[in-house]
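Dear colleagues,

As part of the handover before I leave the project, I'm documenting each prediction I ran so the next person doesn't have to rerun anything. This entry is a single chain, and its sequence is reproduced below.
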Amino acid sequence: MFSRGDLGGTKLSGADLRGAALRRTILRGADLSRANLYKTDLREADLTEADLRGADVTGAELAGAGLADVRVDGATEWTGAHRPEEDLPTATATPVPPDRTTSTPASEWSRGDAT
Protein backbone atom coordinates (compact mmCIF):
# COMPACT_ATOMS: atom_id res chain seq x y z
CA MET A 1 0.00 0.00 0.00
CA PHE A 2 1.40 3.37 -1.02
CA SER A 3 -1.52 5.70 -0.37
CA ARG A 4 -0.83 9.43 -0.02
CA GLY A 5 2.71 9.13 -1.39
CA ASP A 6 4.43 11.47 -3.84
CA LEU A 7 5.47 9.80 -7.09
CA GLY A 8 5.22 12.97 -9.16
CA GLY A 9 7.43 12.85 -12.26
CA THR A 10 8.45 9.24 -11.59
CA LYS A 11 9.30 6.99 -14.54
CA LEU A 12 7.07 3.95 -14.18
CA SER A 13 6.82 3.02 -17.85
CA GLY A 14 5.84 -0.64 -18.18
CA ALA A 15 5.52 -1.09 -14.40
CA ASP A 16 3.24 -3.84 -13.08
CA LEU A 17 1.02 -2.02 -10.57
CA ARG A 18 -1.93 -4.44 -10.73
CA GLY A 19 -4.16 -4.02 -7.71
CA ALA A 20 -1.88 -1.45 -6.08
CA ALA A 21 -3.35 0.91 -3.48
CA LEU A 22 -2.37 4.35 -4.76
CA ARG A 23 -5.28 6.27 -3.28
CA ARG A 24 -4.51 10.01 -2.89
CA THR A 25 -1.04 9.47 -4.35
CA ILE A 26 0.56 12.30 -6.31
CA LEU A 27 1.42 11.01 -9.77
CA ARG A 28 1.53 14.43 -11.43
CA GLY A 29 3.58 14.19 -14.63
CA ALA A 30 4.52 10.54 -13.98
CA ASP A 31 5.42 8.30 -16.92
CA LEU A 32 2.92 5.45 -16.67
CA SER A 33 3.06 4.59 -20.36
CA ARG A 34 2.42 0.88 -20.97
CA ALA A 35 1.97 0.38 -17.19
CA ASN A 36 -0.37 -2.33 -15.93
CA LEU A 37 -2.84 -0.52 -13.67
CA TYR A 38 -5.44 -3.31 -13.71
CA LYS A 39 -7.82 -2.84 -10.75
CA THR A 40 -5.50 -0.26 -9.17
CA ASP A 41 -7.02 2.01 -6.52
CA LEU A 42 -6.37 5.52 -7.86
CA ARG A 43 -9.21 7.23 -6.01
CA GLU A 44 -8.40 10.91 -5.42
CA ALA A 45 -4.93 10.45 -6.96
CA ASP A 46 -3.40 13.39 -8.84
CA LEU A 47 -2.64 12.13 -12.36
CA THR A 48 -2.46 15.60 -13.89
CA GLU A 49 -0.19 15.55 -16.98
CA ALA A 50 0.65 11.86 -16.43
CA ASP A 51 1.56 9.78 -19.49
CA LEU A 52 -0.95 6.92 -19.78
CA ARG A 53 -0.23 6.06 -23.42
CA GLY A 54 -0.63 2.31 -23.85
CA ALA A 55 -1.48 1.80 -20.16
CA ASP A 56 -3.99 -0.84 -19.05
CA VAL A 57 -6.35 0.94 -16.65
CA THR A 58 -8.95 -1.86 -16.83
CA GLY A 59 -11.14 -1.97 -13.73
CA ALA A 60 -9.23 0.82 -11.95
CA GLU A 61 -10.96 2.95 -9.34
CA LEU A 62 -10.66 6.59 -10.46
CA ALA A 63 -13.31 8.35 -8.37
CA GLY A 64 -12.08 11.85 -7.58
CA ALA A 65 -8.82 11.38 -9.49
CA GLY A 66 -7.29 14.43 -11.16
CA LEU A 67 -7.00 13.59 -14.85
CA ALA A 68 -6.38 17.04 -16.34
CA ASP A 69 -4.07 17.00 -19.35
CA VAL A 70 -3.24 13.27 -19.10
CA ARG A 71 -1.65 11.81 -22.22
CA VAL A 72 -3.53 8.88 -23.70
CA ASP A 73 -3.61 7.11 -27.03
CA GLY A 74 -5.70 4.48 -28.79
CA ALA A 75 -3.86 1.76 -26.87
CA THR A 76 -4.88 3.12 -23.44
CA GLU A 77 -7.39 0.57 -22.11
CA TRP A 78 -10.19 1.90 -19.87
CA THR A 79 -12.59 -1.09 -19.89
CA GLY A 80 -14.47 -1.23 -16.59
CA ALA A 81 -12.60 1.73 -15.07
CA HIS A 82 -14.81 3.39 -12.47
CA ARG A 83 -15.08 7.19 -12.60
CA PRO A 84 -18.50 8.52 -11.57
CA GLU A 85 -17.69 12.24 -11.98
CA GLU A 86 -17.19 12.46 -15.73
CA ASP A 87 -16.07 10.74 -18.87
CA LEU A 88 -12.60 9.27 -19.13
CA PRO A 89 -9.98 11.01 -21.30
CA THR A 90 -9.83 10.00 -24.94
CA ALA A 91 -6.94 9.86 -27.36
CA THR A 92 -8.16 13.07 -28.98
CA ALA A 93 -8.62 14.99 -25.72
CA THR A 94 -5.08 16.33 -25.43
CA PRO A 95 -2.69 16.54 -28.37
CA VAL A 96 0.73 15.26 -27.37
CA PRO A 97 3.89 16.60 -28.97
CA PRO A 98 6.35 14.00 -30.29
CA ASP A 99 8.42 12.43 -27.56
CA ARG A 100 12.06 13.15 -28.35
CA THR A 101 13.19 10.19 -26.24
CA THR A 102 11.72 7.69 -28.67
CA SER A 103 12.97 7.11 -32.17
CA THR A 104 11.00 8.25 -35.18
CA PRO A 105 11.03 5.99 -38.23
CA ALA A 106 13.03 7.52 -41.05
CA SER A 107 9.93 7.39 -43.24
CA GLU A 108 8.35 10.02 -40.96
CA TRP A 109 11.25 12.47 -41.02
CA SER A 110 10.72 15.66 -42.90
CA ARG A 111 13.57 17.15 -44.88
CA GLY A 112 16.19 18.54 -42.50
CA ASP A 113 15.04 16.61 -39.41
CA ALA A 114 17.63 13.86 -39.75
CA THR A 115 20.37 15.81 -38.00
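Residues 34 and 55 are 4 Å apart (CA to CA). DSSP finds no helices and no strands in the chain.

All the best with the project,
I.
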